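Researcher: Please predict.
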Amino acid sequence: MSVRATGASRADLVADTALALLAERGMRGLTHRAVDEAAGLPQGSTSNLARTRLALLELAVRRLADREARVLARHETPDPEAGPDAVADGLALAAHRSLTRNRDLTLARYELALEATRRPELRRHFDAAGARFRDQLTGLVTAMGSTDPARHALSLLAWLDGLLFSCVAGSFTAQAPSLDAVRAGLRELLDGMLGR
């Protein structure tokens, strides 16, 4: 496995490789040595950048948040002023990409989320990284006229996370639903929340 990207900083290369290893091998397969080997770096390079396992995990969490924030291009971001259909379209596109071309990122996120349940010091970083997305969802439902933005954002996040987990982990199906199916589910949820 080689994830070397042209122009990527060494920190990005190490973090991207850590995320790829998490998706491929799980938490047990993530070691400093494994990152060095998979990234094609001299032995000890990852340790020089992230001395401890926690530092390596924190680096991976930050990179994960950055990469997930770029799943949609700026012009694809849901716009509440364009109406519920446009919001459902944007959220569905992000979810569908997380199930298809960014599936490995989604797998890595679940590995990190589970590890964060056992390591409070990692939980702080994981929650801080996720706050950006939670805040965006809360702002989105607020702008759409939600009467209870915090509760509605949680419902929306739970639905999206449930869909991703059930398809990526295969608890419902290992096959990604179509973009149209994801959009229809989101539209139903938004209509119910917003009383439309």
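Model: The radius of gyration is 18 Å.
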